Amino acid sequence: MTSGGTKEEGGTEGKGSWLAFGAMVAAVIAVAVLALWATGYWDKDPASSAGSAQSSSPRPSASKSPAAAKATPSPSAKTAKPSPKPLPTRSVPPQKSAYIPPPAPPPAAQPEPEPWPPAKECPVGQITARLTSVDFTESLPGYGMGYVTVTGRGVLTNGTNVPVTFPEYDIPNFYGLDERGQSSVIELYGTFDRVPPPGQPSTGYIVLGPGESVGYTATAENEFLETLTEVKYWHSSNGLASTLISFPDEYILDCSVPYETPDASMSIPNTFTG
After folding, report:
1. Percent of the chain with pLDDT strictly greater than 70
2. Helix (H) or strand (E) holding 24
3. Fold category of 125-269 in CATH
4. What keywords is this UniProt entry annotated with (predicted)?
């Protein structure tokens, strides 16, 4: 009876030891499970675990070494597509225009300024008008009216040092002087004894160079016989109304041209006797 009771007691003690050991193992396992759960090892959503791993500060898992965690790619890394490579660029040369502008012309040469013409001065010298002859003809012959036409001829000389222009209609006048020196006869019209070349129209004026002369003819028509018998001398006037100093190559200068004053030596005695 005593030995039997001892076996049962020994069996009971052995069972109690195994139960205590099992309880200790279970406690260790429970602690390990709680530790793994705390680290999220058994998280059911891989994407959320990957996201939480990215959002939280990176630290190695308790069950994996840092090298293993680095070698294992994350699910997001597996699904990410590689970025496309940039297309190669090609430089395009600039297009040349079909129109080529002509070269700019060279600058035109500037002409040299023309020098001012030398100043012109009024002439030195005198113009002389001198009668050479006086003729008398009866006016209206056959009518016995007693009228006479007086024709005077003379020479106009340019005694200045410049060319002189004379209008064709303006010839030197001539006068018939009585014994008191007063004029009683004046010619009415006349012409210069110079004509243009054949076939060429008249220019309306003549030009005498220095020292040149031209003849002229002046006429007084229908003078009374009594008037002509009172004339003692015939002589030319001492000037023209429209004399111009002429510079044909440049311009015309209006000057007061000096005339030689007629005196007794330049007068022609009257030969009319009626």
Report:
1. 58
2. helix 2-38
3. Immunoglobulin-like (2.60.40)
4. Membrane, Transmembrane, Transmembrane helix
